Amino acid sequence: MPLKSRDEQKVNWKELSDYIKDNISSLATSDTKIESPLPYLKLFKVNIVRGKHLVCNYLITYMKQQSSFGYQNLLDLTCYINTLIEELGASIATGILEEFYDNLKNKDTSTSTDIFLRYICALVRLKIMDEVILLEIIQEFLAENNYYFVSKVLLLCGDHIFDSNKSIHDLLINKLNSILNENIDTKTNELIISLLDEAKVDYKHLRLQKYEWKYSMTQHVITLDTLTSFKFLTEFQYDENFDQLELDYQKLYREKIIPFFEQIDPDINEKKNDENTTLIKVTDMSNTETIEFKKKIYLIIKGSLSGDEAAHKLLKLRLPDFQKPLAVDVIIKSSSQETTYSKFYGILAEKLCNTHSSWQKAFKEIFIENYNNCNDYEPNQLRNIGKFWGHLLATDYVGFEVFQCIHMNQEETTPAGRVYIKFIFQELVADLGVKELKEMLEEPYIQPYISNMFPKDDTDPEKIRFSINYFTAIKLGILTEPMREKLLKLEQNKKEIEGGFDHKNEFVEANRERRRRGRRRRSLSPERRISANKHSSRYSGHP
């Protein structure tokens, strides 16, 4: 069925985004260098021309947190993309440069700046980018007297600059050599010394690490003055030419992508069958199909005698990832319709989450939806849904990071939302005990996810006080102890500041009083002098 409606395209975009993210993530976080072309071919299974902004965004995101092997894997992925889809290769190169240049303008010297510079140098060495960009970057660093990063560029790509433009290379080396006697920081000094040692041996070690791409690809000439503040559009946008773009990509996949990978690995056809790497045609559902699908899931649940049986039947369906949130939604709504909370649904959720991380992801997605739509439920439904989530959180199949969406303050919560949270925590206490729950909430790794629910922000004591009052009211005051300590410190600091102002005011007032008394004495003294003069004149005989 043609995918033309906005809703159908939106679901398709979500699945496309998840698929691209998962594949790039697996390459970036790998603990080995991936030699086989198959993991790279997997990314091309979906229309990455339509999802080019997603590819660029996720690739750049994972660059910042990749492992040592992930660095090489992402470089290989960039080479594959630039060889097969030139415009996408250009977008990736431009995106990396823009991120790097933004850091440069903002004086950001964090690890990500180092990583982006390393990638830029690698892309120049691979001839994906022209070396003119390196000279522009060096010029920017020299203008800022940032000799550390000038040395860094040369340590990463000095052999390439030497081979392409020896005169500029020698000028840079002489410049760095001349500043060694100047007052520069130790870190920069050590880096320059390392560079000079490497240059003396003609970058012997760097040349040994040289990485080459065996297949022809386009080299992109990108300069700093052509960069814009363009950001990758990762949000869904309706496409009127959706069907034609899908047909065009299928033709590209069939006529260019598959033959290229067969050239690399002649046995890839057999491996394709094993790995199921034929082109994925994303199929979304119309409203009618969605209703029929939910009805099917509902009948499976109601026709099962236990949570284990229901899970077994659902797993046999082998649902694609984009349908799993719909199935989870049916499970939770079925639970909400019960007179009281049934552990049937908790066991069903546990079994599903235990099979694959995609089910956990689906449950996390629906948790946020449930919280945002609390006002749509009746009190009894809120109780059942809250107890369901409390049980699942206690089992740790869904982590406490879902609490990131909860901002416990007067402005950002609703009465229904606060009731929903109360039932979640009551079930957590019932399953774990308040002591274990408190210990879990105090784990350092979980703090960023609960900082809005248990705020400790110095700038707004009212939010801290509101959260303390809320959890105390639902008889979980023990969870608020860190917040109480923080609030006490804030109030003490406030009193000290106010006390300082009071002391200052008293001092100012005392000074004013002394000045007033001084003025009164000065106003009387002339009269006394005049009187004294008159008195002396009568006895001296003067008129």
TrEMBL record:
Domain of life: Eukaryota
Name by which UniProt lists this protein: Pre-mRNA-splicing factor CWC22
Family that this chain belongs to: Belongs to the CWC22 family.
Residue ranges of every copy of the MI domain listed in the record: 292-408
Keyword Nucleotide-binding tagged: no
Chain spans, region Disordered: 504-543
Pfam family, any one: MA3
GO CC list: catalytic step 2 spliceosome
Bias-annotated ranges (Basic residues): 513-523
PANTHER family: CELL CYCLE CONTROL PROTEIN CWF22-RELATED, PRE-MRNA-SPLICING FACTOR CWC22 HOMOLOG
Gene Ontology molecular function, alphabetical: RNA binding
Subcellular location: Nucleus
GO biological process, one term: mRNA splicing, via spliceosome
Keywords: mRNA processing, mRNA splicing, Nucleus
